[in-house]
Amino acid sequence: MKREIIITNDGSSSIYIPELNETYHSKNGAIQEAYHVFINAGFSQINKNSINILEIGFGTGLNAFITYLEAKKTNTQINYIGVEAYPVSHEEIKVLNYVQELNAKSEQGVYDSMHHLDWGVENEISPQFKITKRKQLFQDINDIECYDLIYFDAFGFSVQPELWSEEIFQAMYNSLLINGVLVTYACRGSIKRAMLKAGFKVEKLPGAPGKREMLRATKI
Questions:
Q1: Torsion angle, CA of 29/31/34/37, rounded to 10 degrees?
Q2: Where residue 1 falls among pLDDT bands split at 50, 70, 90?
Q3: Domain 29-219 sits in which CATH superfamily?
């Protein structure tokens, strides 16, 4: 499918797939959305010095990169697992502007390395941040009680409804530790019901700019 690099409303870039009318991030602001949903509603709520994170949809690496930046600020140890079935090309990565927009030019090498690391291998980006990228279909995830936090950043329900099913959220529930948290930008009724059926306690929270609400689910 044809893919285009676009600039979202906060000045940060994203990838747009015209055939699906789908973007990798909110058109209202890629960086804004990432901080609102995954850092403020997720990472910042985990009161631990060491956090195991699973990302569903590694994509452009934006969520991993801002997590690295926040971990450095807060002196938090991170073990990051990024799952992606269809990796973004190196040519696309070169023209994304996250490092510049985040005023993190000194960390350009970190962002680049996240995309050049081998798949399926644990890599130490810094003494605080380890990352493993897994090229894997989301339906094939079968981890058991491994994670404190899940960033659920799959394509939207209208494009891939099968990724927002009770079966997927049951796998997510199984992969979390007790009191583990899943955050996502989405807030469709059917998604909330699927989470509840999987066993989660579910909260509606204010959404990122341009979206009224988002969901946070906790394993209890």
A1: -60
A2: confident
A3: Vaccinia Virus protein VP39 (3.40.50.150)
